[in-house]
Each structure stands twice: as C-alpha cells, then as structure tokens.
Amino acid sequence: MLQTQTPLLRRFWYPVMPVEKLADGPQPFRLLGQDLVIWQDGEGKLSALDDRCCHRTAKLSKGFYANGVLACGYHGWEFDTEGTVVRVPQRPVDRQGRTKMTVPSYRTANRYGYAWVALEEPLFAFPEFEEEGEGFRRIQEFYDVWNCASLRVMENSFDNAHFAFVHRATFGDQGHPEPAKLEIDEFEDGFLFRSEVPVKNPALQKELLKMDSDDTVRSMRARWYLPFLRKLRITYPNGIVHSIVTAATPIDDGSCQICQWVYRSDTEEEAPAAKIIEFDRQVTEEDRGILEATEFDVPLDQTGREMNMPSDKPGVMMRRQLLALLRQHEAQAPREAQAAE
Fold first, then answer.
1. CA–CA distance, 195 with 264 (Å, rounded to integer)
2. DSSP-derived secondary structure letter, 19
3. Does the global pTM surpass 0.90?
C-alpha cells in the first residue's frame, strides 16, 4: 500500500498542525500528496484550501490575512474560508463583492490543540477520545516529519517485541526479550489493546516517576483509530499515568507528519514538561532510526512478502482491517459512479 495511491485514505480525519502555528499566518501542508493552505479567519474558524490561487496559480500559503479573509500574496485576491473569491482589488469599487470564482476547500476541525483535515467524506465520525480528567495536564511534544510510511509507525506503536532491541538505550529490558502477552478487542474503526510490560527505569525516568528501582512495569491500554492514530495510556506501579496520543499523518508515499502530545497525572513541579519531552524524544528517535530504514510500500494482503510472528498480531489486524475497507471501497466505487450517471 502506497499512501498517495490509496484513495481510501482520503476518507479519514488527520491532524495536520498545531493551531498555534496559524497565528503566524497561512501555513502550507502536504496531505496525501496534495498541497493545501491551512489558515484561520478573524473569528477563529479554520480553513483548508488547495494551495493555488485560481488567478495565476501562486501558492496561497505565500499570502496573508486581511480583514478576516485570506489574501493572495501575488495580486491580493481575497478568499473566504470556503474558498470563494470575495474581493478582487483591481476591480472598480462598484464591481466589488462576492464572486463565483473558487478554489477547492476541505473539511476542517479544531480538536486537542490541532487543526484536522479530511479530504473527502469521512468513513467514520471524528475520532473523539476522552482527554484525561481533572488533575491531568496536556503537553505538546513533537511535530516532526519522518521518512517512513504512516502504517509502519502505527504497527510499531503496538509492537511489544521491539522494546528490548530498539529501545535498549532507554527503557528496553534485555533480560526480557520475549514480547509480553496482550489482549485485543476489535471495533469497526480500530481496536483496543491491553498489555503489561516489564521495562528498565533509567536515571531520567527515575527522576520523573519518583521511583528508585532499576526496573518497573508499564500497564498499557491503547486504542488504535483507523488509519494512523493511537492513544496509549501507560500506568506505572506508583499510580502515575503517562498518556500518549500519536498521529502519523501521511504527507506522501515516503513521509509522514508525527503529531504527538501527552497527558500527565503529575504536576510541572513534580515532573517538568521539558524533561518529559526529553525522555520521550530519546525513545521516539530510537523508533525513528529503525522505521526510516523500512520500505514505504506496506503489503496488506500478507501473501508472503513479509513474514509474521505471534507478537505481530496488532499489525496484522491493522492490515486486515485496512484491506477489508479498501476492497469494500473499491467495490462501491463503480456502483456510485453508475448511480451518478
């Protein structure tokens, strides 16, 4: 499965950037190979448009805000959040006003501090999950481009077998190379994963967790949302909760945008956000180094190109669910086209 060659992937919500970035003006983003401009009007409404002016094709992301609309940086044509040209400065005053000229616009949402975009009618409702309750804080961690397929990132997120090897410099326990047991409940839009994993407790984690032992256990409860979103709730023996949300938003066939934030049950005084990010950065850079060495084309049909072992069950389920949806989508497309005629 190559990301830009799989039309099904256009029918999901993806976080594309922190909303706070839009305070600097319109921003470019490439989603599934399609260039967009993301911006926010004066009332805070988000907009995602094709990043091409309908006049002389200049990138609208090179434009600027003007009185609550997006102005092209080339000739100043002004667009509303729906992509309609509402003013052409070069026209006489008596001919100003809303026009019939447009650029394509796309669904947007503002959730969890991020701007989200869906390029086509979503297959499932917006991925609503509970933000951790009272006493938790939200920490924005990473906004990085990784040169790998989004599905590789998601599979890795549910892979207990790689801890002892990929994360041997951080929390991986070489004394327990065998993967921990896991339980999975499947849903229409993904699955729920539960597992307990013995891990090392390095110096920085000892400081953050307020635990002196060299080893600890991660009780993990993770929800996968089709196609590339995960929320992992880790509970440690002392009761501290570290809840991670990771999205691998597909940019093109060979890269994805990693959007990650966490919820913590302790306070800034007890565990500074900068140090939490520092440790998680060490862990994710270990993942990144391996994942960027994998192939971009991820086979969904499991016909022998890639072998499996029992601990690969979550990844195999991901591929099966995606393949089933893909086949259903391909079967429906001719019928929908015929009905449109």
1. 20
2. G
3. yes
